[in-house]
Design goal:
The structure holds two protein chains of two kinds. By secondary structure, chain A is an alpha/beta fold. Chain A starts with 5 loop residues before the first strand and ends with a helix. In chain A, about 40% of the residues are buried. The chains are: A alpha/beta, B mainly alpha.
Chain lengths: ~325, ~240
């Protein structure tokens, strides 16, 4: 199959439940081979959008093409080419890990030898080798989640839709998984639609990110551009050697005119936002030295994607 | 493929054994007991009359399987996962109904073979077996669709079990499983005539013992129509379900 330029092309996609607009005229495109992040708070409309794209539910209005097929007309053609990891758990409780993967591979039409090879490889990749003879219902939540994700790598889907896939995974599993996803997209050319509320994951993985809030897409760009547009102000991070000084120092820096905003990010760290962070860092350093407070470090912090989300969502909330 | 998946993933061995208990209980306990009061019905010894009805009933008992299959798929996220897979919704519903047909057939054959020990005057020919299996397959499709429909409409496993038990009770006692459908009040006769289990039981019974004045074509057509309507309702329920 020839991959269309836009693997997903959504135009004014809308879903309402009675008076509630779950997704409100969402328009976006996802290009072939890209990892597209879909970020938003809980209940923002991420999963509802996925349900429409996977043809599980019909849109109330608007349209979308997935892999060149219309979601309202060509559901089966789309689903034949999709891999989907749902946010909710999905598993056959009575099966073992091995029989589940075997069954799933036959559902997707894999030949026995090929299926065996892939299953063995997935055991290793997703640390499931020790669990292969165990019934799924006896696995831990994290193990079940790894199985659920691994299952979708049995077949070669053109588009992989991952709805908060790392929920329940431990740090190591999460790390391996994120690297693997990146590798699949970069070397395998697989297109990945990735939703998460863990901003650092999206920042690490995604080529472009759409931010959805209350059903509306409020920003869409590369992580770099989003930060440039919405979090262009760098901050000064001040870490004190003695955490008991934090409150006094916090009051003290209020006198510095260039401080626009301040918050404490840990017991001993103060974050100060300014239009001129370099000047502010120098002023803070002098002030602390003059007042006799001991700073462990004073550094300029890069803006984070988290700041972008907080700012965007905050602005939206204030505008309502 | 989906039917295979249903069997591998959802079939409970305990269920297979337990669902045989009720028809066998009717044959060996109720059948003997009632035969002391009612020696024969329509010139058929009562044990044989009841045994053929119990064979028909077995396919209905198997339909509990379709209800629980859907229920567990919904509870464990596989319902959505399958509907997002390379299948149509119709294929899913038919696979579940087909699972009931196969389970019902296997169970009915066991009940039938066991019932041979108490039945007399059975006709075993190609035509009688065709009627037997035809009725059981159509019955399996009806009750498979029924199980799908109920499991998509109820909100809890308790409601599913209660609804299935109540409807089984109604289906069973307002059908010709235990007694012929004539000689009842007109309202009850109407319900008897609408009840697919009546047609399944009648077709099985006619095939195995022969019933006087029985019109196979009409009975088979009614059962085909009822099964088609039930499958259509099940399909519509799957199409319309809010996920």
């Amino acid at each position: 199959m020839i991959m269309p330029d836009a693997v997903i092309d959504a135009v004014d996609l809308t879903k309402s439940y009675g008076d509630t607009l779950a997704v409100d005229h969402a328009s976006f495109t996802v290009k072939g081979g890209e990892i597209f992040g879909f970020l938003g708070l809980n209940g923002a409309g991420k999963t509802t959008t996925i349900k429409m794209l996977t043809t599980l539910i019909a849109p109330t209005s608007g349209s979308a093409k997935v892999l060149g097929y219309d979601i309202s007309r060509d559901g089966l053609e789309i689903r034949k080419r999709l891999g989907v990891v749902q946010q909710q758990e999905s598993y056959d409780r009575n099966l073992t890990v091995q029989s589940s993967l075997r069954l799933y591979s036959s559902i997707w039409g894999l030949k026995r030898d090929e299926a065996s090879k892939r299953i063995e490889w997935l055991y290793e990749k997703f640390q499931l080798a020790d669990t292969k003879k165990k019934k799924i219902r006896w696995l831990s939540f994290g193990q079940r989640r790894r199985l659920q994700v691994a299952r979708e790598f049995l077949h070669d889907s053109s588009l992989l839709i991952l709805d908060e896939p790392t929920v329940g995974m431990d740090v190591l599993a999460r790390h391996i998984f994120l690297d693997y996803i990146k590798e699949r997209a970069k070397s395998g050319g697989q297109t990945i639609f990735y939703t998460t509320h863990i901003v650092s994951e999206a920042e690490y993985l995604c080529d472009r990110i759409a931010v959805i809030h209350k059903g509306r897409i409020i920003a869409l760009d590369t992580p770099k551009e989003l930060k440039k547009k919405y979090a262009d102000v760098k901050s000064v991070s001040v870490t004190l050697r003695n955490s008991s000084d934090l409150e006094k120092v916090s009051k003290l820096v209020e006198g510095l005119g260039s401080v626009q905003r301040k918050d404490t990010s840990s017991d001993s760290e103060l974050r100060l936002v300014s239009q001129d962070p370099f000047r502010l860092a120098s002023e803070v350093s002098s002030l602390l030295e003059k007042e006799g407070y001991d700073a462990e470090s004073i550094s300029i912090a890069e803006p984070s994607l988290e700041q972008v989300i907080v700012r965007l969502v905050g602005e939206q909330e204030r505008s309502i | 493929m989906l039917t295979r998946r249903n069997f591998i993933a959802s079939l409970d061995r305990e269920f297979l054994v337990i669902q045989l208990v009720l028809p066998l209980f009717f044959i060996f306990v109720a059948g003997f007991g009632y035969s002391l009061i009612v020696p024969a019905v329509q010139d058929v010894p009562y044990e044989t009359f009841l045994a053929t009805g119990a064979v028909a009933m077995t396919v209905m008992a198997a339909s509990m399987l379709s209800g629980t299959m859907i229920w567990f798929d919904r509870n464990f996220g596989m319902f959505e996962q399958i509907l997002m897979g390379p299948f149509t919704r119709a294929q899913y519903v038919i696979s579940v109904a087909f699972s009931v047909v196969l389970t019902g057939l296997a169970s009915a054959v066991i009940v039938f073979l066991v019932s041979l020990t108490v039945s007399s005057g059975l006709i075993l020919s190609a035509a009688s077996l065709l009627q037997l299996f035809g009725a059981l397959i159509l019955g399996g499709l009806f009750f498979g669709g029924f199980g799908v429909y109920v499991s998509l409409k109820v909100k809890s496993s308790e409601a599913l079990a209660a609804t299935m038990n109540l409807t089984f009770f109604i289906f069973t006692f307002l059908s010709s499983v235990f007694y012929p459908s004539n000689n009842h009040l007109i309202l009850l006769r109407v319900i008897f005539e609408l009840n697919p289990l009546t047609y399944i039981a009648d077709l099985v019974r006619n095939g195995l013992v022969g019933l006087p004045g029985f019109n196979i074509l009409v009975e088979a057509l009614v059962l085909i129509a009822e099964s088609a309507v039930m499958l259509y309702l099940a399909l519509r329920a799957v199409d319309r379900i809010e996920i």
